Amino acid sequence: MPPAEPRPDASEKTAQTEPIAEPKRFISRHEGRFHDRQITYTAIAGETHLKDAAGKPRASLFSFAYLAESNIDPAQRPITFLFNGGPGSASLWLHMGAFGPKRVVVPGDGAYPAAAPYPVIENPLCCLDITDLVFIDPIGTGFSRPLGEAKAEEFWGLDEDAQLVADFIKQFLSDHRRWASPRYLAGESYGTTRAVATAAKLQSGLSGVAMNGLVLISVILDFHTARFEKGNVLPDVSYLPTYAAAALHHGRIKPAPADRSLFLDEVRRFALDEYAPALLAGSRLAPERRQKVIDELALYTGLAPGWLERTNLRIEPSRFRKELLRERGVTIGRFDARYLGEDYDEAGELPDDDPSAYAVKGAYTSAMQDYLGRELGVDPIMPYVTFSLEALKKWNWHLPHENDVSRWPGYVNVAPELGRLQRESPALRVLMANGLFDLATPFFAAENTIAGNGIDSTRITMSYYDAGHMMYVNEDCLRRLIADFRALLGPAG
Questions:
Q1: Is 306 helix (H, G, I), strand (E, B) or coil?
Q2: Which of 220, 266, 454, 484 is the most buried (most CB within 10 A)?
Q3: What Rg, from alpha-carbon coordinates, does the chain have?
Q4: Rounded to whole angstroms, how far apart are CA atoms 398 and 62?
């Protein structure tokens, strides 16, 4: 006789039969003064259940919506959807650092914040006077999770994630009767990839939903610009001006140029006209030409010519972070090269960690967790996940292609989609915000991406800030970022 099928235990029966609870929402009313206007607003922290084709709930996306009480017709009032990146990050960085009605204060000059408690203040730069705000936590972050028989891995991918966020936005517009409102997407880091991919999902098809504008903060659309692999020289070229900015900031450029902007323009020209051809030439490069390039690299990066010779003219960012200030026994940050850290071993090749990350992450995490309970009255549905390493490890980076039968290996590049969005939406506005000291998504990589992917640069506002990846930790940079965002909304605001 064949063996009997195993019986499901009680927990399995419960999982199969227990109905899915109704979405939880925590609604509170607040007042704040933003841009010299007293605003009363409703905060809705809650779940949105998204369904599959059969009408069964498959995902619960948690969001934080701030809706101002206004006499303006909702058809005229903009709404902005915001998220961070990772992939695997919740939206707390943009939420508590720049755009939310409250923000956590940390030193903006590369210094470390003091121990807890971390000051959380009313954010007078919050733009609730001109736009409603919705912060989205993707699946596996915050309180967002799969429902029913769905697994988190089903949503952990470039295409899958973009589709889910697009579905959420359409559901939100329906739930709140905001289909006529001007619509904006704002993303940071991988969130810029998500913003373009989501906008493409929304706009595609005969029932397309066009965006009025995209806010891309710390831009990465073409991942080839950041993949330091043997044979790929694009990252070396793209990172060089940021190395120069960091070296200048830390006093490694001798003599220091009188004008930083002109200096960085000079580095850009060298990167394109001399450095890139030298790297492409490889072993074919004449010895005298090789030496000239090494000498110029040393001048622009503050690194020793002998070290550059040994690396075959290639500078990987982690090596740069360790090598630049080795004589001082400190490393520099990845997200923000202004930050300094100490390693266990000064002789190592790579940094132990990123000082610009561990300098501020504790403050943001504590602030967000406290804000959830004391300000928004959120009863924990589950632990609030600020970052999911599991999502990052399991992320599916492939985009499906209709005619792709061979499945050639490739890399992520959503930049052509931005070009298509521009061609199909002549009114689309785009802001790209770049930190000069960002060694995760360097500004010259964004410039190279614009130049090579069918994007109309004349329809993009490029802004540069004296900080890193999270430029908004600096008070002056935060003010400029908000001013640039408000300018993007323009007459629609």
A1: helix
A2: 220
A3: 24
A4: 25
pTM over 0.90: yes
- Report the distance separating Cα 64 and Cα 86, nearest Å: 19
Considering the domain architecture, whether residues 410 and 339 belong to the same structural domain is answered as no
pLDDT digits (tens, 9 = 90+) for 432-481: 999 999 999 999 999 999 999 999 999 999 999 999 999 999 999 999 99
Nearest one of 178, 112, 168 to 142, comparing CA atoms? 168
| 3-class SS of residue 294 | helix
Which residues does residue 34 pair with via DSSP β-bridges, in sequence order? 37
The stretch 353-376 carries a mean pLDDT of 93
3-state secondary structure of 247: helix
Cβ-proximal residues to 77 (8 Å cutoff; 6+ apart), any chain? 68, 70, 131, 132, 181, 182
- Cβ-based neighbour number of residue 124 at 10 Å: 14
Q: What's the pLDDT score for residue 382?
A: 85
Last-in-domain residue among 295, 330, 354: 354
- Asked whether the CA dihedral 350, 352, 355, 360 is positive or negative, the reply is positive
Domain boundary residue, one of 354, 380, 411: 354
**Number of domains comprising the chain:** 2
**β-strand pairing of 429-435 with 213-219:** parallel
Contact criterion met (CB below 8 Å) for 306 and 295? no
Alpha helices, DSSP H, located in 18-125: 92-94
From CA 183, how far away is CA 492, in angstroms rounded? 10
Where would I find the beta strands (DSSP E) of 204-354? 213-219, 331-332, 340-341
User: How much is the pLDDT for 7?
Assistant: 53
Residue burial 225-243, b: 16+ Cβ < 10 Å; e: rest? bbebeeeebbbbbbbbbbb
- 163, 268: one domain: no
- Residues 421-434 have pLDDT tens digits of 999 999 999 999 99
pLDDT at residue 320 is higher than 50 = yes
List pLDDT tens digits, range 173-211. Answer: 999 999 999 999 999 999 999 999 999 999 987 678 999
Separation of alpha carbons 332 and 335, rounded Å: 9
Instruction: Print the domain residue range for 54.
Output: 10-224+362-492
Q: At how many degrees (to 10) do helices 287-301 and 234-249 cross?
A: 40
Q: What is the DSSP letter of 284?
A: G
Phi, psi of 484 (to 5 degrees): -65, -40
Closest of 211, 268, 263 to residue 446, by C-alpha: 268
DSSP-derived secondary structure letter, 157 = B
